[in-house]
Amino acid sequence: MSEHVSIWSVPDAKAKLSELLRRARKGESQVIGTQDPCVVLSMAEFNELQRKAGEVHLGRWLVENTPRGLDFEVPERSSGRRNLFEAD
After folding, report:
1. Is the per-residue pLDDT at 54 higher than 80?
2. What is the CATH T-level fold of the domain 5-65, as seen in this structure?
3. Domain boundaries, the chain
4. Residues 40, 24: contact at Cβ < 8 Å?
5. What is the pLDDT of residues 12-38, one digit of tens each?
6. Buried b or exposed e, range 32-59, using 16+ CB within 10 angstroms
7. Beta 29-32 vs 38-40: how paired, if at all?
């Protein structure tokens, strides 16, 4: 992620959109607004953030790291075994 961040008012961002986009493409994140700000960044930086986010996603990690092909013994089903999902 970029180290340099510029903060723009909405009117300035509208008036200088080309400059704002040029800076974002250079790797400088651009913040628009102060009360409910939005960030403009390059597509390359966005893709890198998405890639990093995918690396730490717990669900993806669990699917990718679950052991496969291991033998395990399935417990025998017996009629005397209590059904934990059945109401008492």
Report:
1. no
2. YefM-like fold (3.40.1620)
3. 5-65
4. yes
5. 999 999 999 999 999 999 999 989 999
6. beeeeeeebbbeebeeeeeeeeeeeeee
7. antiparallel
